[in-house]
Design a protein that fits this description.
This protein has one domain. The two termini are 42 Å apart. The protein is an all-alpha fold. 95% of the residues lie in helices and 0% in strands. It contains three helices and no strands. It is found in: Cell inner membrane. One of its GO terms (cellular component) is plasma membrane. Its main location: membrane.
Amino acid sequence: MADRKSSTEASTEQLKADLRHLSQTIEDLVKATADDSRSNIKELRERAEKRLHDTRERLEARGERLYGETRESVREQVDACDRYVHDNPWTSVGIGAAVGVVIGMLIGRR
């Protein structure tokens, strides 16, 4: 769990750094446009496009990795709940009934 947390923090820091670099490149492009130096604009535009492409790839990869990790975690939790219900059917029925009574009482108060 600690490895996953440190990996997430490292990925978050990397994305923050990428976005800072991209932002800085775009600011440079805007400043260069005011100068109207054609070669300078072309170079800065190419840098901005490359950084944008790299950042987009990292964001997509991170999103896919988060989706996979979340999906696996949910699957494990569902499996654990399923095993618990199969191993303790009467306890599960009692918990369900208690939750139903509490929800019924809360709704009935309105």
